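stage 2 :: seqdesign
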């Protein structure tokens, strides 16, 4: 075997680079007036689940009217009426019209009875300063929305503003939020935390998109979520478009055992995923052959700009990022302190599987480690990896501490200099 250690020209000092990346720090979730804080609407006067003045009655009235605003107070509204319908009479709170909930610090707790909110096709829900918790998605996988969306199931338009979705679960997908085909979901200045998905298949602990939908996460925190298989924090579909801006994705876990499972922070299943001015830190893909501790791009288009990918871990490969074919582009992004374990343990910072394309420009690849090959960057034999104006230094691996080209591949270059293959 032959290994090569290369250090491309440094564009700027590490300190200046970090300041550039973090110029837009993610805002803390919660707080603030949350838009029309003084707006009038249907004021809920009791925490009881049902009857005059209740949250459930107010949702039903807004559905009947076609639209409405509900004003809560900083108390806990706990669901207690078991059953299944699409009229908000029992079980979850079905939204069939256009509803705004002004929470003012309120908590809506499903108490493990059902999910919390169900936004029906053609409907819209805006949550402001609300905590959504205690939801469990009902139904069976294989049906539309079945076993998905522990906190919120969105088949229409959902806006989560200055709110928290926490402590919800789903057997299939979308422990916190499930967005299904045709939906639009926006999460702004909010937190998705400590939600989880079960094993069937277990994707998108914080949020999961099924089919051709759109998701935008802005100035938010995706923290401490768990998926049994893929996308501990966020999961994007093959036909989906997801953008994550000025946000923090940290401490999430994906536990899938297959080599194309993982994506502790984010998983892109062939769609279009953009991550900009964000931090992807301390996420884990801990399955037997889990890959992509921070992000996993599976045959899709991934663009990462002005972002820090730091301290993530994967069992198999791609401690920071796993690119499984597809197209992966990193611009002014830092891969630092990521690690892969011993199965086989390749590509501490970034690992490319198969005939994909990776482009890295004006970044840093420093302090990453792999138990086997390519502490910084690892390119597959049929893959293409082009690195320009990027610092590659201080990475560790028994073979190819900074960079590694597998087999007889000839398409790995750093500032125009080809990295020789091992064959």
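stage 2 :: out
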């Amino acid at each position: 075997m032959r290994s090569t250690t290369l250090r491309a020209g440094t564009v700027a000092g590490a300190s200046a680079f970090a300041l550039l990346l973090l110029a837009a720090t993610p805002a803390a979730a919660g707080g603030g007036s949350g838009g029309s804080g003084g707006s009038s609407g249907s004021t809920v006067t009791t925490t009881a689940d049902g009857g005059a003045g209740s949250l459930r009655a107010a949702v039903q009235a807004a559905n009947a009217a076609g639209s409405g605003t509900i004003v809560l107070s900083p108390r806990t509204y706990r669901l207690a009426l078991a059953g299944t319908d699409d009229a908000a009479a029992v079980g979850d709170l079905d939204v069939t019209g256009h509803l705004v909930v002004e929470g003012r610090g309120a908590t809506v707790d499903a108490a493990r009875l059902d999910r919390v909110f169900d936004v029906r096709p053609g409907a819209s829900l805006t949550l402001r300063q609300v905590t959504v918790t205690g939801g469990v998605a009902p139904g069976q996988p294989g049906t539309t929305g079945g076993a998905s969306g522990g906190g919120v199931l969105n088949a229409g338009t959902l806006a989560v503003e200055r709110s928290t979705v926490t402590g919800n679960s789903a057997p299939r997908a979308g422990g916190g939020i499930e967005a299904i085909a045709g939906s639009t979901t926006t999460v702004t200045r909010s937190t998705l935390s400590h939600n989880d998905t079960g094993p069937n298949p277990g994707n998108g602990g914080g949020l999961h998109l099924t089919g051709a939908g759109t998701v935008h996460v802005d100035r938010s925190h995706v923290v401490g979520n768990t998926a049994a298989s893929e996308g501990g924090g966020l999961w994007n579909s093959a036909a989906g478009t997801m953008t994550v801006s000025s946000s923090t994705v940290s401490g999430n876990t994906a536990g899938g055992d297959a080599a194309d499972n993982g994506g502790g922070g984010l998983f892109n299943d062939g769609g279009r995923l953009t991550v900009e001015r964000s931090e992807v830190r301390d996420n884990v893909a801990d399955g037997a052959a889990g890959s992509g501790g921070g992000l996993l791009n599976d045959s899709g288009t991934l663009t990462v700009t002005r972002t820090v990918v730091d301290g993530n871990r994967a069992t198999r490969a791609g401690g920071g990022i796993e690119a499984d074919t597809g197209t992966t582009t990193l611009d002014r992004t830092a891969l630092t302190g990521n690690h892969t374990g011993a199965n086989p343990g390749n590509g501490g910072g970034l690992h490319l599987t198969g005939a994909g394309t990776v482009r890295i420009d004006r970044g840093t690849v420093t302090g990453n480690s792999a138990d086997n090959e390519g502490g910084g960057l690892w390119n597959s034999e049929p893959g293409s990896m082009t690195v320009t104006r990027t610092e590659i230094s201080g990475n560790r691996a028994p073979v190819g501490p900074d960079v590694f080209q597998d087999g007889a591949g000839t398409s790995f270059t750093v500032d125009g200099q080809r990295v020789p293959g091992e064959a």
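stage 3 :: structure notes
- The chain has one domain: 14-39+94-418.
- The longest strand covers residues 98-109.
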